[in-house]
User: What shape does this take?
Amino acid sequence: MKKFGKRLGQIWQADQPGQSISFRFRGSTVKLYDLVGPDGGQAIITIDGVRQKKLIPRFDSYCTYHRIATLKVASDLDPKKFHTIKIEVHPEQPDRKAVSHRLKDPQKELQGEKFQGTRLRIGGIQFLGDKIEAL
Assistant: This one.
């Protein structure tokens, strides 16, 4: 992760189911400046105590390598209120088949260590508002 240090600074990494990061902010929108990659997991997002139905994979059809990405967590929230956000590691890794067409031997490579994991890596929190607090 050293190659991303200049753009992300410190990187928070979690890979065990249930590990999470939580914060409160007053504002309308929050995004994460994060990394996606071959070992990327799925994020469970909870906003103001309500778990979102859709899991957010941090893996896509380009994930034969790691790269910086932005994840929209919430928008259109009441900008005058404080909102509590929790991002948690889901126990199952996302389906890796989306990257198969980029591999020489997908059946073998997708079973390798490179494509295993449920890692979430966050380098920054972007928000539209005026205050943020770690929980």
In short: The mean pLDDT is 93. The chain has one domain: 2-134. DSSP finds two helices and eight strands in the chain.
